[in-house]
Amino acid sequence: MKLLSSGTAARAVSLVLLLLAWEITATLAHSRALPAPHAVFAFIAREASGGDLLSNIAITLARVVVSFVVAMALGCAIGVALGRSRRLDTAFDTWVIVLLNTPALVITVLCYIWLGLTEAAAVLAVALNKIPTVAVLMREGTRALSPELDEMASAFRLSPMDRLRHVLIPQLQPHIAGAARSGLALVWKIVLVVELLGRPNGVGYAISVYFQLFDVTAVLGYSLAFMSVMLAIEYGVLQPYEAHVRRWRLTAH
Questions:
Q1: Coil, strand or helix: which one is 216?
Q2: How far is it, in rounded angstroms, from Cα 95 to Cα 81?
Q3: 3-state SS, residue 246
Q4: What pLDDT digit, counting tens, does each position of 27-82 carry?
Q5: Which of 237, 131, 242, 147 minimizes the C-alpha distance to 187?
Q6: Residues 71-89, buried b or exposed e (16+ Cβ, 10 A)?
Q7: Cβ–Cβ < 8 Å for 68, 130
Q8: Are 74 and 136 contacting, i.e. CB atoms less than 8 angstroms apart?
Q9: Which of 79, 80, 87, 182 is nearest to 132 (CA)?
Q10: Checking CA distances to 92, which of 29, 194, 249, 250 falls within 20 to 30 Å?
Q11: What does pTM read for this prediction?
């Protein structure tokens, strides 16, 4: 508990120092291109009271959640399959490498061309950008599975479902947690790009509108507001989950 409180205090002090440095720099620059923190926070408050900010954040968050779930589900399934089967890995490794190295912008544009400016195209574009990363992480995690536990499962004649629940998933949970944390950081950024290119709402769309108006205060306001939501998910959900699945390391020491 003491370690947790000291870590929280250190983050709070670091955040205050960052805001102070921002305020001083903005004051010295005295430019519309770098608004002060109080101006950005004032915009956030006005936009939130009008309802536009909360509406756009909710829409973007929904896209993030759907894309994230699809990418994690398919990426984990593909990664485990490739990690368990050398033949599948040899056959489809090139596919994974190609997707890994295809720019997110290209995938997004192609999805919009093929499926139109639709919600399905937006979600698919985000998922396709994340699936190969999850697949690679889960493939490496699957390769590191304990063969002794596999032998034990075979000796006790565990059913495929019991083997999955009691042998495979517990060993893969740390890798799933790592893929989830890196995945969320990537997914929400790509969602904003997808919204900027082809959606009529969401945080990315709002940022594109204010960019055309050269309203840096609004751009920073929307960015910080949604970033705060993602940080809350990171610190409130993903990091506790990762600590939970890695707790055996602490007890082992």
A1: helix
A2: 14
A3: coil
A4: 998 888 899 999 999 999 999 998 899 999 999 999 999 999 999 999 999 999 99
A5: 131
A6: bbebbbebbbbbbeeeeeb
A7: yes
A8: no
A9: 79
A10: 194
A11: 0.85
Q: Which residue has the tokens 């973007």?
A: 60
Q: Are 132 and 165 in contact (CB under 8 A)?
A: no
Amino acid identity, position 192 = L
Helices (H), 85-118: 86-100, 104-115
Q: Which residue has the tokens 């009008």?
A: 50
> What is the spatial distance between Cα 241 and Cα 247, in angstroms, rounded to a whole number?
10
- Tokens describing residue 179: 């893929």
CA distances 136 to 71, 77, 78, 80, 84, Å, are: 12, 11, 9, 9, 13
Q: What is the DSSP letter of 234?
A: I
Length of the chain: 253
Q: Which two tokens stand for residue 126?
A: 């985000």
Phi first, then psi, for residue 158 (nearest 5°) are -70, 145
Structure-block tokens of residue 223: 């960015």
